[in-house]
Write a structure and sequence with these properties.
It is built from one helix and no strands.
């Protein structure tokens, strides 16, 4: 009917969360040699998908900066 939830016990060994050196395969920059390398087309598709996803938010942010600049510029011109 109902399963008992396993109680998790945390042990503080003094390491930070960023210290993952004790994990197997944690060397940065090294990949699994048996895994196939992605093709240029796959890499390009992933890159272009990320760029397309960020394009409109980037334009909105730049537009906000331009609008803020214009407002501050007009305020300083009115004070002068």
């Amino acid at each position: 009917m109902g399963r008992k939830k396993e109680k998790v016990t945390y042990i503080d060994d003094g390491r930070t969360l960023a210290d993952m050196s004790s994990l197997p395969g944690s060397r940065l920059g090294h990949r699994n040699p048996s895994a196939p390398r992605p093709t240029f087309k796959e890499v390009w598709t992933t890159y272009w998908g990320a760029v397309k996803m960020m394009f409109l938010p980037m334009l909105a942010f730049i537009g906000g900066l331009v609008l803020l600049y214009i407002i501050v510029y007009v305020l300083f011109m009115l004070m002068a």
